[in-house]
Amino acid sequence: MITSAILTLLYGLIKVVISPLTLLPDVVLTGNVGSAIATASDYLASVSFILPVASLVAVFGLILAVEGGILAFKGINWLIRKIPFIN
After folding, report:
1. I need a labelling partner for 28 at 20 to 30 A (CA). Which of 34, 37, 64, 70 fits?
2. Residue ranges per domain, the chain?
3. Contacts of 56 (CB under 8 A, 6+ apart)
């Protein structure tokens, strides 16, 4: 009974926070996006004998992870500097 009340409150809170997003119209991609993806996959297929696509995805994921870590580090340092008496 208590857990259902807590879950109902959490659901209501999430619904209130997300409610402005429901006012926005749905987004539909144009046909050009699909053709661009098809063209990119053709280019990647022609280069796959030199460097496999899985390697490209792994390198791209590693770069994103490192950049995300740097961003998190800088964000935490910025927050620490904003706290009085810690400077």
Report:
1. 64
2. 52-87
3. 44
